[in-house]
Amino acid sequence: MSTLAAAPPRDAVTGDPARLRRAFGSFATGVTVVTVGGTSPRGMTANSFTSVSLDPALVLLCVGNDAVMNRVLAGTDTFAVSVLGAGQEDVARHFADRSRPVGAAQFDAMDWLPGPASGAPLIAGAAAHFECARWRAYDGGDHTVHLGRVLALDAVPDREPLVFHHGRFRRLAEPAEGERA
Predict the structure, then answer these.
(1) Would the CA dihedral through 60, 161, 78, 132 be positive or negative?
(2) Which of 81, 96, 114, 142 would disulfide-bridge 130, Cβ 3.0–4.6 Å?
């Protein structure tokens, strides 16, 4: 029987946010753009996204409590997630830029199509799209954890995803022939 070590004092972890961010950055993630349609469409780059359940089909995303998108998601019934493909760093940077235009104008700089199930913009060239109905939201400290029930999806199986690791956009590296994966 093993025993768990006592948790370090809270200040040891939260007292150095830069150190905590660097440690979190050691976990490679995909990069998405979360979108909401309607009269004032909105997009936001997010890398806190994951699958949760196959039945029902659920996805999870975390959004900072102070982000405009957090308030937008709380007031909508549907949203979409575009999983960006390799080479779409410019799209990720655009939707992470707080000075981008508001409303529909923020989508003028790229190709997109309206999601048939959600009406939310779907980013063209993405590796996958998920259109979701808002399912639940939970307190997650300085973020809100949003769960969405997948209404529709599409994916391009051979499309390499955009990856974020240690503060940089990256590509997946395939092992050389003869190397183990």
Answers:
(1) negative
(2) 81
Please indicate, yes or no, if residue 12 is contained in any of the structural domains.
no
pTM across the whole model: 0.86
Mean pLDDT (the chain) is 90
Number of Cβ within 10 Å of residue 178's Cβ equals 5
Tally the C-alpha atoms within 13 A of residue 34's C-alpha that lie toward its C-beta: 30
Specify whether the CB–CB gap between 118 and 131 falls below 8 A: yes
pLDDT tens profile 114-160: 999 999 999 999 999 999 999 999 999 999 999 999 999 999 989 99
Domain range enclosing 40:
29-164
Tally of structural domains, the chain: 1
Measured CA to CA, the distance from residue 147 to residue 175 in angstroms comes to 34
Q: Are the C-beta atoms of residues 69 and 63 closer than 8 Å to each other?
A: yes
